[in-house]
Amino acid sequence: MSPPRNSNRGAALVTVLWLTAALAVIGFAVAGTVRTEAGRAENLVDGARAGFLARGAIERLRHFLRYPFSPPPGQPPPPFVSGQSRAYWTLPGGDVIIEMLPETGKLSVNQASPELLGLALAATGMPAGRIAPFVNAIVDWRTQLPPGILGASTFWVRHASFEQIEELMLMPGVTTDLFFGYRDRLPGGEVVVRPGLRDVLSVYGSPNSIDLNAAHPALMAAVGIDPETVAGIVKARRLEPLTSPVVRQMFPTALPSGIQPRAGFDGAFTVRATARPRRPDGQLSEYRRTVAALMVYETALLSQPPRLSIRQWYDVATSDALWPGETP
To answer: Quick one: CA torsion of 264, 266, 271, 84, rounded to 10 degrees?
Structure first.
């Protein structure tokens, strides 16, 4: 006797429902993968555009500094002038925040005294027990030995001045976190951003002064500026650069550490450009890319103006620059 037709129809219906559910799951999975890959591709495109936009902004700033000009009366001022520390540019491809950070905001790795080197290392969060041996290692590295005398270190030591701050990474005990900075969790659970050696030391820095417009807050605190004043300086310089009269009024004499705060830079500075590309709808992308370059004024001949050269590019950099309307 053959089974009823209704049972066959029910089995077929259940099979169709299961197949439909399976195809729906596969469809959702494929759609999710496509959406993820599309977003990833969009981020890659925005990243590439932001990188080129930031590098182009640095080259544009270099051009303005090499060939300064005064616009005719009634014309808008140039996008950047000598002495300016920050500018916001609206370009066809996106918006850029350009910053000039004098290397005089850091201490000289070649000329600073061992005591000041110790304060700079303390600003990075280095444990107190490691500071003295590390200071001795820096002094040993930069000190030339008499002829015929060999160093006792088992590591290669140059026994000459640092030519690039990256040479610190050749010293024993220097990790990427120590050089570039890292996030540290305090015993109370608070997370702080520690500066790296490159943020407090420079081959172009000053032996006994720091530029408050560029000095890292941790370095200012380490050399003896109280936390409340440091916070006020950081807040004020976000709006406009501090001037020499203002700094002299705040600090008429040198700090107990021997550091003299000042404003103004010499012939070496780091330029940072943070870019956000513009999307086809005219809105700015949420993607941000920061690129930096170390620039130095060089004098070739007395009869020629100084030449501005780029000593080093940093394709990966960080910045705390805020877009209009943003709050820290």
So the answer is: 40
